[in-house]
Design goal:
One of its GO terms (cellular component) is nucleus. This protein has two domains: 94 residues; 278 residues, Double Stranded RNA Binding Domain (2-Layer Sandwich). The strands form two sheets. An eight-stranded mixed β-sheet has the order 1-2-9-8-7-6-5-4. By secondary structure, it is α+β, with helices and mostly antiparallel strands. Helix content is 45%, strand content 14%. The radius of gyration is 32 Å and the shape is elongated. The relative contact order is 0.12. α1 packs antiparallel against α2 and α6 crosses α8. It contains eight helices and ten strands.
Length: 413
């Protein structure tokens, strides 16, 4: 009997144990599922927070970079204006003005110029790039007729700073002939160098601490037309010598060859060009332009070629620059980015992707202009400026190009 009872209880006991095991299993499974759901939600929340922080940091960086570029551009304009005061004083002195008269004239001019500089500087800082009033930096139009447009502007600036900072700037390779001379025409960024010209070293007005103004230097580029709001035109910019102590800067457009712009400074000539291109489109925007950047002389590669010209080493005030050739991989990335910018310039009127659509194609942004000629290679390295802000490249090439992109001292517009 005892054995039978024991045997008869075994199946029940086994069933109870099985029941308890299934219940515990289901309970454990349910808890595990809830735990996983909670963890997933927490993970998604954490990932979203990280992405939000990353986006915020990226936005702050972009704003800071844009502000730096704007301030750099304003600095160049202020230097041009200050130089106009200094050059006016030196010119009046050279014409035989007595020391007392010269001092009085300079003092009056200095007071009025400083006041106007402060006002223009405040206005440029407060004004939005898209809603600022049309003004000209350091230039006034003297007359405009069917033959030519001549503007009075400050001569090439002379900082007279003996402590000019010299940094090694990277340059892209250029094709050369059997004698080692660059083969013309030469495509550099959005500019095409037609002629490097020759150095006039015995007249101090033909160079500054930062730039040499070679006589005969000629570049061409695509730029918004001054007479057709819907199209671009080919612009030819040349440096001329009329026998005086400083060069003349001439800009001629393919669609209006009989109406060139002539000024005694690169900034004066290009400011007039930008203003007229903006006017025909009904755009209210700052019209100031960095002349050396538009001429391409701030681009590291072009600056190195000009420095190679005969007589460049005899320029007394010019501070000799240091250059080094970039690696092949970086050079390919730079040239690829420049080709993309040229395409944007021809199609959109700007090397950047943003445009202001007003009565046709937009004229390059004044701040963008100041960056444009900066060499894609130096944009983050030194304080030059060449092409417009870094373009996106292939994953392997983007890092090299961006590293070089910020400082061509020129502008790609």
């Amino acid at each position: 009997m005892t054995n039978e009872n024991t045997v008869s209880q075994d199946p029940a006991t086994s069933a109870d144990e099985q029941e308890i095991t299934e219940h515990q299993y289901r309970k454990l499974k349910r808890k595990l599922k809830e735990y996983m759901e909670v963890n997933c939600l927490a993970g998604y929340s954490l990932r979203a927070q990280v992405l939000q922080i990353n986006k915020s940091i990226s936005d702050n960086l972009s704003r800071s970079m844009y502000k730096i570029k704007t301030l750099r551009f304003e600095r160049n304009i202020l230097l041009d204006k200050l130089q106009s005061v200094e050059s006016t004083h030196s010119d009046s002195h050279a014409e035989g003005t007595s020391e007392e008269e010269g001092t009085a004239a300079y003092s009056d001019l200095e007071v009025s110029s400083i006041a106007s500089l402060k006002a223009s500087f405040k206005a440029s800082r407060k004004a939005s790039p898209y809603h600022s009033k049309s003004t000209s930096a350091g230039t006034k139009r003297k007359r405009r007729n069917s033959a030519s447009t001549t503007v009075i502007s400050a001569p090439p600036k002379r900082n007279r700073n003996p402590n000019v900072k010299v940094t090694t700037r990277r340059i892209q390779p250029v094709p050369r002939d059997e004698n080692g001379h660059p083969v013309m025409p030469l495509q550099i960024g959005v500019l095409t160098v037609q002629d490097l010209g020759h150095v006039v070293w015995d007249r101090p007005g033909f160079h500054t601490e930062r730039y040499i103004w070679p006589v005969g230097y000629t570049i061409t580029r695509s730029y918004p037309s001054m007479i057709d709001a819907n199209n671009n035109t080919t612009v030819r910019a040349t440096i001329l010598d009329d026998g005086n102590n400083q060069p003349l800067f001439r800009i001629e457009c393919e669609d209006c060859p009989n109406d060139p712009i002539i000024a005694n400074s690169a900034t004066g000539a290009w400011t007039a060009m930008v203003k007229r291109a903006n006017e025909v489109r009904g755009i209210l925007r700052t019209n100031s332009a960095s002349g050396p950047d538009y001429y391409g002389l701030g681009h590291a590669t072009i600056a190195s070629l000009v420095q190679e010209l005969e007589g460049a080493d005899k320029c007394q005030d010019y501070v000799w620059q240091q250059f080094e050739a970039m690696q092949d991989r970086a050079a390919k990335g730079v040239m690829k980015a420049c080709a993309k910018k040229r395409g944007n310039l021809e199609k959109l009127g700007s090397v950047k992707y943003r445009m202001v659509q007003k009565a046709g194609s937009a004229v390059p942004h004044a701040d963008a202009i100041a960056m444009d000629n900066e060499s894609v290679q130096d944009e983050l390295v030194d304080e030059d400026a060449d092409m417009e802000p870094p373009s996106s490249l292939a994953a392997g090439e983007e890092e090299d190009t961006d590293e070089l992109d910020e400082n061509d001292d020129e502008t790609v517009w």
